[in-house]
Amino acid sequence: MSAVRLAGVSKDFDGVPAVRELDLDVADGELLVVLGPSGCGKSTVLRLMAGLEEATAGRILIGDRDVTKLSPGRRNVSMVFQSYALFPHLTAAENIGFGLVVREVRRAEVRERVAQAATVAGCAHLLERRPAQLSGGERQRIALARALVREPDVFLLDEPLSNLDAELRAQTRAELKLLHARVGATMLYVTHDQIEALTLGQRIAVLRDGELQQLGTPEQIWREPANRFVARFVGSPAMNLLASGAAVGLEAPAGAEVGIRSEHLALGEEGVEATVTLVEPIGSEALVHLRAAGTELVARVPAEAGHGVGDTVRLSSSREHAHLFDGETGERLPWT
Ligand code: ATP
């Protein structure tokens, strides 16, 4: 396994930038998630690492090898695509072993390595089936085994769970995390799903319009978002962003916006008067939409609090839970 390094990597398509001067260091054995909205350049970053796109500028290193100009076949990376890209006429075993057969690895060795990879990916019982006879989650495991069998330096995973239903997605996500712990591989995982990023990533790189916004552990990204964009993109419902602290009884510096996560708004006896405009139950909790001091907010509260539309409540928060952002640039500001 190897560390990966992108140094000042840019990619333009017909003069339009998709990735801008990206610096990224992925440690040996790390699972790093690249997170961002549709079109932010996530897939392009993976395709650049795989050698499927050529960088307009910058260098890409895998271990101590500069692979910037190498063809995909010489980089020793494995990519798992959103579509899995399995051959429909081959069995699972043949799909997994395909790359080895093409490289003229001996048949007995192919069989052995396919069996090993399938065991690690949890699909050893499916080897004789064709893709049409497999569920989405099972196909995903075959695609993972096919990536594992090549014993690459780096795994590149492009939204590999997006075709699965919610339950299977959560289950496969957990399995993938265990698999990473077991094989200790360097993995880059692309997603637009912030929950996936928070649950899977050892570190998360947040991208917007091809630019790195923040690189940090899930906890850092959550607790100290570097700017307004990261603050709003990570977390559901999105962080409340207020033009001033007036709606929650906080005095913020002039020109600063105040960000407060829904779970950090308190509805009680004290604070600013607010009107409930909508209640969305989500099981043990409810999302309570409010209007206070001319501002719309969402609070996450225990369902048994029993708020109803039209209720008048009092709203407060504390400085400890309030983030400050520059009203113009959106950059994080310290409380002074
Ligand atoms: P998604 O989550 O929707 O897959 P993404 O974050 O992976 O999005 P990319 O596929 O990396 O985004 O695309 C980044 C930008 O580059 C987009 O504006 C896209 O339209 C553009 N782009 C990607 N590939 C090409 C291409 N081959 N030719 C021209 N433009 C491209």
Overall description:
The chain has 336 residues and is of the alpha+beta class. The chain has two domains: 2-232, Rossmann fold (3-Layer(aba) Sandwich), CATH 3.40.50; 238-333, OB fold (Dihydrolipoamide Acetyltransferase, E2P) (Beta Barrel). The protein contains eight helices and 19 strands. A six-stranded mixed beta sheet has the order 6-7-8-3-9-10, sandwiched between helices. α2 packs across α3 and α2 (92-102) packs parallel to α4. The longest helix has 18 residues, at 166-183. It starts with a strand and ends with a strand. The model has no long low-confidence stretch (mean pLDDT 92). Bound molecules: adenosine-5'-triphosphate (ATP). The site of adenosine-5'-triphosphate (ATP) has 11 residues, from α1.
